[in-house]
Amino acid sequence: MYRSRNRPKKGGENEVKGPNSALTQFLREEGISAENIKQRWYQQSKKRRDENDEKKEDVEDVDDDDLTAENSQVVDDKELDDVETGSDTESGKVEVSYEARMKLVTADSDEEEYETSSVSGTPISLSTANNRKLLAKKKKAAAKIIQNRRRKRKRAADLLDRRVNKVSSLQSLCIGKISENIYKWQKDANESSKLVFNRLRDVLGGVSTANLNNLAKALSKNRALNDHTLQLFLKTDLTKLTFNDCSKISFDGYKTLAIFSPHLTKLSLQMCGQLNNESLLYIAEKLPNLEALYLDGPFLINEDTWEAFFTIMKDRLKEFHISNTHRFTDRSLSNLLVNCSSSLVSFGLSRLDSVSNYALLPQYLVNDDFHTLCIEYPFNEEDVNDEIIINILGQVGGTLRTLVLNGCAELTDSMIINGLTAFIPEKCRLEVLSLEESDQITTDSLVYFFNKVELNKLTKCSFRRCLQLGDMAVIELLLNGAKDSLISLSFNSLKELTEEAFVALACPNLTYIDLGFVRCVNDSIIQMLGEQNPKLTVIDVFGDNLVTENAKTRPGLTLIGRQSDSI
Amino acid sequence: MCQDPVTLVSKDNKEYEVSRSAAMVSPTLKAMIEGSFEENKGRIELKQFDSHILEKVVEYLNYNFKYGGTNVEEDDEEDEIPEFDIPTEMSLELLLAADYLSI
């Protein structure tokens, strides 16, 4: 059983929550904030001033006594200094030097913001009324600047959150409120919260599945999904469930889930670090209809358990995607393929450091309906080479709808020409094509591919960081049937692209395009894209320094990552 | 097009008036108003909701109509949208209502 010894108690204060960094969280816990520091400075300087005022009064009293000869007192002081006496005069000196400092301070623009109208001594405030007016004016100006700054920051934050609509829907407002309160409740007494959740579940019974999924998303985003909040989802008739952040769900939580949601067919558990051997087998046994499992980070599951799991799921598992675990080894992979390959139609491996024998795949992926293949970020790039992918495509290329080969940097033009072009039928079903970070693929092979194969179902396409691609690849893609079906496109970091590539970019259904670090993109290209693509709502322009605040966009189109928005 | 306000009726027969254009914010209400049923006369019975929920819904319809509409021109205004306050105890029921009205 996995239990971290230094994990804080449930609901502890020092939990990193939401989009804050750990540093922000720490500063907040320690009560360190710019405002605090400023206030402390205020208090200290006020205290000092008060003390000085008191002392000054004393001095003045003395002065009143011998009004006649101030000079003589100075002389006296000098005389007395020699004999080292008179603490009163000492403080007088301190006071003078402090006032002198304050005088100097008025000339320093940095400190002006903190100036108050009563700058202690009489000598400065010759025309207090005037001063006060000036200070009030300054204060007003400062307040305005601060407000502007805050406004700008909020706008930038909204942009980054992709909040295009200014007014969020009532549903999302409610979900936000609920998740916020769930977090609060769970911090309060654990006993009473149980009752609350029972009630919550009763009420939530009528909420549509879509909203239940939204609630799961909202909870995950706030890192508030745990054994307590999990209870909201224990609906007996739920068939599909996705949790994007399970890091706080304990192994017991997974078991409860398996018991109370027996109809689940598809389960996605991301960041499921606490999922252990026992609960995985429990899930396999208690969910008789389960046929799709997506796991991210199940690093507690060992080889033996994987073997047992695949034996239980034999001929039942249709979709299996796994990422981020070093305990899923070549042996586990072969167990999976031996037991479940006949039923497998969707398969994904990503960031698995102990898997190297990808050459096993071609002979096992044989299902006639196989539609999704994702092989991403192998530990050794050489393990996923052209030959393997060509062989896989030879088996399932005809039915493939999703092909994701991100981070397989070993792939070359040979894969495109002898694999994609050769085995994907002319009227292909491909909907998603992602070849990110394949920096050996060149324009020529893609031009050939787009020329030969009609991609009229392609909706999502990414060539992020395929550094060698140039204009012709993009133009050929747009001359292809894909032009009418494309919804999302990524040309991130294609530094070779020029304005020419974008002239032809007119897709009736395109809603999102990532043009980050495509250096040629400028204001006029942005304007042109807005006009040519009626449904385009978001353009990512991170790192495009030619896109300025003068870029003209039609209403409904948002630029994200523009330098002028955040600085 | 008729510009009369629309009346929404709650479970306990309380009536809430809302301008026709604000009601159009909700696709559900829009369909009811524009449809060929009894509701197009401007009286819509939402008997599944309590009056306090409906009151909040009407408040939101007006809020959304005021700030979320097409009057986007002024950049400054944009940032001064007040937050829409939802009492905690109401949030779940309100979610159901919002779900139903697709707002």
Automatic annotation (TrEMBL), chain A:
Q: Which InterPro entries match?
A: Leu-rich_rpt_Cys-con_subtyp (IPR006553), LRR_dom_sf (IPR032675)
Question: Which top-rank group of organisms is this from?
Answer: Eukaryota
Q: Per its UniProt record, what SMART domains does this chain match?
A: LRR_CC
Instruction: Give me the Gene Ontology terms describing cellular component.
Output: SCF ubiquitin ligase complex
One GO-annotated biological process of the protein? SCF-dependent proteasomal ubiquitin-dependent protein catabolic process
**Name of the protein in its database record:** RAD7-like protein
The organism's taxonomy opens as: Eukaryota, Fungi, Dikarya, Ascomycota, Saccharomycotina
Q: Which gene encodes it?
A: YJR052W
UniProtKB/TrEMBL annotation, chain B:
Q: Name one GO cellular component term.
A: nucleus
Gene3D superfamilies membership = Potassium Channel Kv1.1, Chain A
Q: Where in the cell is it found?
A: Nucleus
Q: Which UniProt keywords apply?
A: Nucleus
Q: Which SUPFAM superfamilies does this chain map to?
A: POZ domain (SSF54695)
Record domain SKP1 component POZ: where: 6-64
GO terms under biological process = ubiquitin-dependent protein catabolic process
Q: Which InterPro entries match?
A: ELC1, SKP1-like, SKP1/BTB/POZ_sf, Skp1_comp_POZ
As for family, the record states: Belongs to the SKP1 family.
Q: This protein is called what? A: Elongin-C
